[in-house]
Amino acid sequence: MPxxxxxxxxxxTHAQKAExxxxxxxxVASIAKTTPEETIVIFQDxxxxxxxxxxxxxxxxx
Length: 62
Hints:
Elements: E1 3-8, H1 14-32, E2 40-45, E3 52-53, E4 56-57
Parallel strand pairs: 1-2
Antiparallel strand pairs: 3-4
């Protein structure tokens, strides 16, 4: 049973997450030779103040 974790900044709509879940599920099931029903996609919204790149918090970047 493949489990795919997607971490991203908040702000995506329900519709965007649903579309992304369908696309990820389709590709993973096809390549991993499993079924869509056995494929789990977990979305986690990570606030920008909890995400840094190059030592700078994303909330401080412009």
